[in-house]
Write a structure and sequence with these properties.
The complex is a heterodimer of chains A (about 350) and B (about 270).
Chain A: E1 3-9, H1 15-21, H2 25-36, E2 41-48, E3 52-59, H3 68-77, H4 81-84, E4 89-92, H5 93-104, H6 116-130, H7 136-155, H8 165-176, E5 184-188, H9 192-203, E6 208-213, H10 216-226, E7 229-232, H11 236-239, E8 245-248, H12 259-268, E9 274-278, E10 295-299, H13 300-337
Parallel strand pairs in A: 5-6, 5-8, 6-7, 8-9, 9-10
Antiparallel strand pairs in A: 1-3, 1-4, 2-3
Chain B: H1 4-29, H2 32-60, H3 67-90, H4 96-111, H5 127-162, H6 167-171, H7 175-207, H8 216-238, H9 243-266
Chain lengths: ~350, ~270
């Protein structure tokens, strides 16, 4: 087969190195064409994302001028090949195919199961194909890779479940409310996770965002950022009944919302559910509020345990994915073992 | 043909039972082809069941839902149809894990009941029979489906309240959907039961000369109607959403079971042929 892959990723190199060897869009075409005419390289494809730079190539048999891929990478970016070598991984043939299939299935990603990498591999493939740097071998391998990526996504649970605190909160909200569209969210206090959750909710169609803060000026400032409305801290109790989701991350030493206030609010809104996301330490919402019908209270530890459960699920899904990949690598290698060229499709 | 009906019935029972098992298997394993298989089995079972009902009506000489055996079959048949409509509306097939075992249980019970095809007695040879029986049983099927939604609601609610989500949290639909689907199904069932009771009264007025005769079945049907009227009133006027309304739907289901079975078994009355 003579397939080679050379790469640098988040596991082997820090950001300072990765940024030096990446191929931004503007340089990508030039790089693909330069690599095409280099030594023993017959086919090539470059995959460059923020977490990885990988060069895929088919090289001629018995080439002896050393490694054409390392020297190309170093030359193109004006780096010293010896300095690069400690960050680099190289794989051949079967291992290279296996690596590509793991990458496209998001097993090699920083967050296992994330969906972006699939599109990035596809883009890299189309870019290389349009510049004619692919031959029959890489063209075939990448078509297979895209098929494998799709299969893993549909046949395993790899992309399911939220793997951060803020997305876990969204996931819960979506299991409580049928839809987030038209819902009202209130954010009390300011905090990084809280802000991320609000942004996430906003992109899912939440219609109204209310912002409360000890100091009204700060509330108004945050309200501007979110495109919401500021609420005076003293009016908190009275505006509860208008809210569906309440995110609280103040550092108040006592409960900001008591069980009775939550009870009154849910009653006032005819038992429409109320979802409290309590990110404060010490806790901002009386945990006893969770015992009220149609009121749900999750604190930061609860959300973390949801996230951890999801991560464990993804690890289990990764095992299923590896089984699929092993099977596909086997069938690809079988087809190649005959003549090193892309075989006809008629084979089983 | 008389030998053909039990054969078809057994086929219907076997396929619907298998369909119920497959739906549960899909819930546990989340494999798409299992659900596709479950759907085909239920569809096949529905076709078998339809033919049993059609052949029996043909043999009896007209629309016939007479006796416990036929009513169980008809109930099961309507429940499958009601499930399909709710599946189409909600986009979720999870309710099948309760609705389909219920269908299989109805057919299983029908196996133990006298299944002879009886000719329609003259007193029941009326155009009103079809309307009265059909709308009452559509009501029953809707209430049974509403019960399934309520059980799933309470299950998912317990999952979320526990604050330790497990696999079932992901498998079960959202509370909002379960609540609103349960409400819609029961509202539809209520309208249908109302039509059933009114058409029964009109028919009774013509056949027996009295709108209402406090027959045990009538009394229980009225009670059932009042139970669901209270449910709807609670939802519309008192804001009984979610938790309380789910428990109410479950209680209503048991009143319905008693209205359907108990009042015929325990008391003699005008509805003794069911």
């Amino acid at each position: 087969m003579n397939i080679r892959v050379l790469g640098i990723n988040h596991k082997t190199a820090p950001i300072e190195i990765r940024e030096k060897v990446s191929f931004p869009k503007a340089k990508l075409d030039r790089a693909l064409l330069a690599l095409k005419n280099r030594g023993s390289v017959r086919e090539n494809l470059i995959l460059s994302t923020c977490n990885r730079t990988e060069l895929y190539a088919v090289v001629e048999n018995g080439a002896s001028e050393g490694d054409p891929l390392v020297s190309f990478l170093a030359d193109f970016h004006g780096l010293d090949p010896r300095q690069l070598s400690q960050y680099i991984y190289e794989k051949k043939d079967r291992d290279a195919v296996n690596h590509l299939f793991e990458v496209v299935s998001s097993l090699d990603s920083m967050i296992v199961g994330e969906t972006q990498i699939f599109g990035q591999v596809k883009d890299a493939y189309f870019r290389a194909r349009s510049l004619n740097t692919l031959g029959r071998t890489l063209d075939y391998i990448f078509e297979e890779a895209i098929r494998v990526g799709k299969r893993v996504r549909t046949e395993t649970q790899i992309g399911k479940g939220a793997v951060s605190i803020s997305t876990a909160a969204i996931e819960l909200a979506r299991k409580i409310f049928e839809t987030l569209e038209g819902k009202t969210v209130l954010i009390i206090g300011a905090g990084k996770i809280g802000e991320m959750t609000v942004k996430n909710l906003h992109s899912r169609g939440v219609s109204t965002i209310l912002v409360a803060n000890r100091t009204l000026a700060k509330a108004q400032e945050l309200a501007r950022i979110f495109g919401g409305r500021a609420v005076a801290f003293d009016d908190l109790a009275s505006c509860l009944e208008r809210c569906d989701i309440i995110i609280s991350s103040t550092n108040a030493p006592h409960f900001v919302i008591s069980r009775d206030q939550a009870q009154a609010a849910v009653r006032a809104r005819d038992n429409e559910p109320l979802f409290f996301i309590d990110l404060g330490v010490p806790r901002n919402i009386d945990p006893q509020a969770n015992t009220i019908d149609n009121v749900y209270v999750y604190n930061i530890d609860d959300l973390a345990s949801v996230r951890d459960a999801n991560i464990r699920e993804r690890m289990a899904a990764a095992r299923d994915a590896r089984a699929i990949i092993a099977q596909c690598v086997e069938s690809v290698c079988c087809r190649f073992s005959a003549g090193g060229r892309r075989p006809e499709r008629a084979l089983p | 043909m008389d030998n053909f009906i039990p054969l078809l019935f057994n086929a219907a029972f076997a396929t619907l039972f298998a369909g119920a098992c497959l739906y549960i298997l899909h819930f546990v394993g989340q494999r798409r082809f299992v659900r596709a298989l479950a759907r085909s089995f239920v569809l096949a079972g529905f076709v078998f069941l339809s033919s049993v009902l059609a052949l029996r009506s043909f043999a009896a000489g007209g629309f016939s839902v007479l006796g416990l055996h036929e009513s169980l079959l008809f109930f099961a048949w309507l429940l499958v149809a009601a499930f399909w409509i709710s599946e189409l509306k909600s986009g979720s097939s999870v309710n099948a894990i309760l609705a389909m075992p219920l269908v299989a249980a109805l057919l299983g019970a029908a196996r133990f009941v006298d299944n002879a095809v009886k000719p329609l007695p003259p007193a029941l040879q009326s155009r009103w029979l079809g309307l009265h029986v059909t709308s009452c049983f559509i009501g029953y099927a809707c209430f049974a489906l509403g019960f399934c939604f309520a059980v799933l609601y309470l299950w998912q609610e317990a999952e979320i309240k526990s604050r330790k989500v497990d696999k079932n949290f992901f498998r079960l639909p959202s509370l909002g959907m379960l609540d609103s689907m349960g409400y819609k199904t029961i509202a539809l069932g209520f309208i249908s039961l109302s039509i059933g009771i009114i058409s029964g009264s009109v028919w009774a007025q013509r056949a027996w000369g009295a709108l209402w005769s406090w027959d045990p079945k009538e009394t229980w049907a009225l009670l059932l109607w009042l139970v669901y009227l209270a449910y709807l009133h609670g939802r519309v006027a008192r804001g009984w959403k979610g938790h309380r309304s789910a428990w109410y739907a479950i209680a209503g289901f048991f009143v319905m079971i008693f209205t359907y079975l108990g009042s015929s078994f325990l008391f003699q009355g005008l509805h003794s042929y069911l």
